[in-house]
Amino acid sequence: MEGVDHLAHERNKSEFDVDAMKIVWAGSPHAFDVSDRISKLVASDPGFRKDNRSTLSRKELFKNTLRKAAYAWKTIVDLRLSEEEAAKLRFYVDEPAFTDLHWGMFIPAIKGQGTEEQQQKWLPLAYKMQIIGCYAQTELGHGSNVQGLETTATFDSQTDEFIIHSPTLTSSKWWPGGLGKVATHAIAYARLIVGGREHGVHGFIVQLRSLEDHSPLLGITVGDIGMKFGNGAYNTMDNGVLQFDHVLDVYSIAFASIAVMLWVSQVTCEGKYKQSDVPRQLVYGTMVYVRQTIVADASCALSRAVCIATRYSAVRRQFGSQNGGPETQVIDYKTQQSRLFPLLASAYAFRFIGEWLKWLYADVTQRLQANDFSTLPEAHACTAGLKSLTTTATADGIEECRKLCGGHGYLCSSGLPELFAVYVPACTYEGDNTVLLLQVARFLMKTVSQLGSRLSSKKPVGTIAYMTRVEHLMQCRCGVQRGFAELSADLVEAAVAHCQLIVVSKFIEKLQQEIPGKGVKQQLEVLCNIYALFLLHKHQGDFLSTGCITPKHAALANDELRSLYSQVRPNAIALVDAFNYTDHYLGSILGCYDGNVYPKLYEAAWKDPLNESVVPDGYHLYIRPLLKQEIRTARL
Ligand SMILES: CCCCCCCCCCCCCCC/C=C/C(=O)SCCNC(=O)CCNC(=O)[C@H](O)C(C)(C)COP(=O)(O)OP(=O)(O)OC[C@H]1O[C@@H](n2cnc3c(N)ncnc32)[C@H](O)[C@@H]1OP(=O)(O)O
Ligand SMILES: Cc1cc2nc3c(=O)[nH]c(=O)nc-3n(C[C@H](O)[C@H](O)[C@H](O)COP(=O)(O)OP(=O)(O)OC[C@H]3O[C@@H](n4cnc5c(N)ncnc54)[C@H](O)[C@@H]3O)c2cc1C
Description:
- The chain is an alpha+beta fold.
- The protein is 53% helix and 9% strand.
- The protein is built from 21 helices and 11 strands.
- The strands form 3 sheets. Strands 1, 2, 3, 5, 6 and 9 form a 6-stranded mixed beta sheet that branches. Strands 4-8-7 form a 3-stranded antiparallel beta sheet, with no helix packed on it. The protein has a two-stranded antiparallel ribbon with strand order 10-11.
- Strand 5 and strand 6 form a beta hairpin.
- Helix 9 packs across helix 15 and helix 10 crosses helix 14.
- The protein is globular.
- The chain binds ligand L3CPSR6R and flavin-adenine dinucleotide.
């Protein structure tokens, strides 16, 4: 029945202050206030409805996305929302769109790599959305290998301009989000050529389309690359293809022939290339920035799937009826708990590692401004490794949540298939996860000698076991006199172990902070222990081979895990309520707040266009002749 909370009995079991946990999850009272207010604003506005997406064609879907993006912008302007509130609004609209790349990459790239003069020119236009940008780095032939990009930018000292060109088919820009049909400008990455000499890959701001009639400019061929995985999902995004035919461009982002560059390099009016003494990797800075935001995204996506699966696991009953009594809630089965609760713990773990990574990025950015590059290698390794670890775990976790919901998890109305289809490219974009782990492995090879010293420092026992595992995995590999390439598969395992160590240790550090609210810290300690012991159980071979734990320890850890699952069980619904997601944002009948699932599933089924007629289109043409055919062969 509507209005009845079918999960009230579960909520009454909670042993902690849920409102206080909501603040912990949001990050601060202010952050909670903004999230709560904006999510409800979006949920209550029919202009942001999304329950019809799976019934739209690609063109209808894309046009609807443009409508929503324009409507969101109007809402932001009309309500005079702050940058923080506007970002939250775009998040809760929950639709991959060109605006993600405009705000998430184009603007950060100019802020991170542009000169003062370029920032003054481009940022006001971008902030007012008087230009719409994308980040055009990947090409048809190269994505991971940035130094293999083929697009050229040749400096013409006669005209003080750069000529951008796509010399080959494989140099076509391919994948950039927003490029296909919307972006008016791109930050295009190209090989700089000055005076016949090549100086590697740099970024250039290039106008693509007319601001008058949106037609591609002279020398620009641009379009969409076609349908992607899943039906609705990421097809709201116009990932594009772009070819330059000797396009004149006067706005280099890394170069301004008339302005001294603060960062990467400069080309003087006389056409001289001057490499400043900053690491060339700063040209990769935007990727580092986006990777740390993707870790926060992972906690959002995983928590969303876990919220759906947890609520439905409490609603769903199957088997176990005694004397005609109610059947057992599937959340009470130990197998369901052993699959679901580590994902719940991971969602919280990724939330806190995302907070730490945001601090690390801000710290390294501040240091860079003081020409202190000392922490850049670690920042790169951390953002690359944690982006890889959290997106892989989240993609796998969303799929596990679908399976935890049985058959109904496969319905679009569960919200899980769409969430999975939208989320999985995160394992590829912003760096293929394996390629990024190889970067971590390379960093570990260079710093393995320091791992030992870090072991001796006063660390909680749990961390010591994880640190010993990494050191052991590295020494087993480094000790073998074979090349990096030969050992890369093993080194990637050590890289994963290193990233898991970071997540565990930062979760433990989080618990050393003051955490207000009755029972809140205790719940987080349970979740931290579940995360750490679940991984120890999953990788116990590694831990046993270090000698750091014995088989008896491993067995005790498994017993402790079961006990921890029993401690989480009465608090599970409250722990997912703490995410404070509206039913609109969850987009899931299985995960609806009141748990009134079956009537909503049944009602939703009849809304499918296929049920608009009792007799389906095609019956008279195809089925009736089948049913009425004379059976001519006696055997049938
Ligand atoms: C809630 C549900 C939904 C939630 C999801 C939201 C849905 C909608 C969201 C939509 C938003 C989507 C946003 C993303 C869109 C996607 C954008 C993109 O994909 S942009 C393109 C990304 N491309 C890449 O990441 C390319 C990966 N490749 C590289 O980074 C590099 O090629 C490489 C690092 C692999 C290799 O670099 P290279 O220079 O060729 O050489 P080395 O490996 O030898 O490195 C040399 C040296 O540099 C150091 N290094 C490398 N990278 C960096 C760096 N980034 N920062 C600092 N230092 C770096 C490296 O460690 C080496 O150091 P050394 O001391 O010499 O060892
Ligand atoms: C949805 C989506 C949105 C995107 N948006 C953008 C965007 O806005 N802008 C942009 O510039 N790009 C974008 N991209 C492109 C994305 O950044 C690249 O696809 C990504 O960097 C992976 O590169 P690749 O496609 O070349 O993969 P490849 O490197 O070709 O990967 C193929 C396989 O080769 C393996 N491999 C590659 N190199 C090595 C190695 N050295 N050692 C071991 N294994 C290796 C990989 O692990 C993988 O298994 C997007 C991609 C997607 C899917």
